Give the backbone structure.
Amino acid sequence: MTFAWYGHLKFFHAWSLPLTIFLSWGIALFEYILMVPANRIGYNEEGYSAFQLKILQEIITISVFILFASLVLKEKIKWNHAVSFLLILAAVGFAFYDKTHS
C-alpha cells in the first residue's frame, strides 16, 4: 500500500494524474486481496478483535513506510518522527495487553 500511495512521488512523473491514480489503485487492489482474508482469519480463527487487527495493520504499514521514505524517497528520520513511532509501538502494546494477560 505504501508504494501505491507514495511511489508516484519518486516515479511516474511523466504520467498523467488519472493514469497514476489507476496504477495506484491496481497496486492497492493486490494488497486488499491479501488483507481481506488475513483479517478474516485473524478475527474468526485467531481471536483478534477488529481493534487489534486495525492497530496491527497500522504498525506494519508505518514500519514499511519508514523504510520506504528513508530508502526510496531519501528522507531523513527526525527525532520527532522517531518519538512518534515509539508512541505508536506503545499503543500496540496497550491494544494487545488484554490478549496477553487474559
Q: What stands out?
A: Residues 2-100 form one domain. The longest helix spans residues 17-44. The two ends are 33 Å apart (CA to CA).
